[in-house]
């Protein structure tokens, strides 16, 4: 199936109260492994690319990898640019085939964020693409973007006004969640998700998913978190499985790259499938 609009995935997920997993892929192996899990689980899926990954691969080459692999998978797939503060990169990716972007302008004041996000929404919608917005930073640094400082949380009225006036298709609220590993069990403002969805009807995006319990995921999804980001878990399982294999290869004195790649793929695929089952997206493909 070709890459499909983000709004198609999230509107269905919000209506039926399941979460579409959004994995931050880092190379062609992780793209293929996540897609293989989605095909087996019959789950819609979002493939997210960081600005760092876009620059490392090159926009055209990265899109070609995703588009080629997605054509061989019969589940809905969306290609999303994650946490991008750079308008030039957003425009380049939209021109290059990405059908969703997160314009990360949380460091701007709300008025300027609103003004620029409205422009990004107009640009994206003109290309048939969609936009995730945010006005509060999610604590933690991911792929060189972000801050370890606790974000300033805006009032519900300010957040609702931002969503309605910009026309964003998805919104990422700060609810006590954080990128990276949690050092202690997070205290989450679940009610804020319910209030935002009730006021706007717009699906929410849950960032900082790695480390939350299945119960936390499922409660937030039931409240309207239709997109659930998973980045740290993918990176961890990819690198930890690599370390495990290489240590054994060194002990045995056997160096076999195809077996190495298969080991990495299995680890990433199993991780992705587990999240799909937890989020309730398994069996939701159309």
Describe this protein's structure.
Helices cover 51% and strands 16% of the residues. The protein contains 11 helices and 10 strands. The chain has one domain: TIM Barrel. It has 286 residues and is an alpha/beta fold. Helix 2 packs across helix 11 and helix 3 packs across helix 4. The protein has an 8-stranded parallel beta sheet with strand order 8-5-4-3-2-1-10-9, with helices on both faces. It has a two-stranded antiparallel sheet with strand order 6-7.
Number of domains: 1
Strand segment count: 10
- N- to C-terminal distance: 10 Å
The helix fraction, in percent, is 40-55%
**Shape, principal axes of CA atoms:** globular
Strand order of the largest sheet: 8-5-4-3-2-1-10-9
Q: CATH class, anyone?
A: Alpha Beta
Tell me the series of helices and strands, N- to C-terminal. HEHEHHEHEHEEEHEHEHEHH
Low-confidence stretches: none
CA-based gyration radius? 18 Å
Can you give the mean pLDDT? 91
Task: Give the percentage of residues in beta strands.
Answer: 15-25%
Task: Count the DSSP helices.
Answer: 11
CATH fold naming: TIM Barrel
* Sheet with the most strands, sense and barrel status: 8 strands, parallel
User: What's the architecture, going by CATH?
Assistant: Alpha-Beta Barrel
CATH superfamily (homologous) name: Aldolase class I
